[in-house]
Recover the amino acids of this structure.
């Protein structure tokens, strides 16, 4: 992995993250992404020699424990994406606590878990304390590209690191995508889903879920990693962005 930038600028930090969940929720509730897509994208990360953060729902972990063991075994960060992928804005406080607690307990049977991302990048600020109660240290539930919903910080001890662009941006034509990605300030937080590495192109799934899925999406992820390598980026797991250092 390159460790020096081509200029005097410090290297940009890039977090590649994977939201592991049922296929394109709430439109499908099948598991082809976990069964077929997750191994393919983990193979790519292994070939590229990068460590990523995998936010996984408790139900996905229960469905595909081998994927969870592989995430931990290959040095990626295991992180929580809730239990069922139900959106938090529709949950009362007790339901929200149950989603967070159940996923944390299940995932911690496989490894240490300190980072969280809410489904659909929607997490009410009044629930941040529930994450602290369950021992989380970092939240990546905000989205810089959702201008109206992005509020920099609530009163919380959590490190908050928003996602930089939505997942389908990575599948745009390279001349648009690369110009966009090059301009992002660090830390750059990218995300994708295992179901993007399953070919949905001939289905009637909504367009942003199905375009360039399957092999093209995998090629796009490889190209994005190559772009940031050419810029001298450092690929970091999200927990490494917690100020007191959780690089282990
Ligand atoms: Zn999700």
């Amino acid at each position: 992995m390159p460790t020096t930038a081509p200029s005097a600028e410090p290297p940009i930090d890039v977090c590649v993250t994977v939201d592991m969940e049922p296929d394109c929720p709430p439109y499908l509730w099948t598991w082809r992404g976990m069964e077929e897509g997750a191994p393919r994208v983990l193979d790519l990360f292994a070939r590229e020699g990068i460590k990523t953060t995998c936010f996984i729902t408790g139900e996905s972990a229960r469905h595909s424990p081998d994927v969870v063991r592989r995430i931990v075994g290959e040095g990626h960060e295991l992180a929580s994406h809730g239990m069922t992928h139900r959106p938090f804005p529709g949950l009362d406080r007790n339901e929200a606590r149950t989603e967070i607690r159940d996923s944390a307990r299940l995932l911690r049977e496989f490894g240490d878990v300190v980072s969280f991302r809410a489904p659909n990048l929607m997490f009410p600020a009044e629930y941040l304390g529930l994450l602290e109660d369950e021992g989380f240290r970092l939240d990546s539930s905000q989205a810089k590209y959702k201008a109206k919903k992005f509020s920099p910080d609530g009163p919380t001890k959590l490190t908050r690191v928003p996602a930089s662009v939505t997942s389908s941006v990575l599948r745009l034509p390279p001349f648009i995508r690369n110009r966009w990605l090059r301009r992002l300030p660090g830390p750059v937080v990218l995300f994708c889903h295992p179901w993007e590495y399953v070919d949905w192109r001939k289905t009637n799934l909504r367009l942003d879920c199905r375009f360039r899925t399957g092999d093209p999406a995998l090629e796009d992820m490889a190209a994005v990693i190559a772009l940031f390598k050419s810029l001298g980026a450092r690929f970091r797991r999200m927990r490494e962005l917690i100020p007191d250092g959780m690089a282990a």
The first helix runs from residue 32 to 48. The first strand starts at residue 13 and ends at 20.
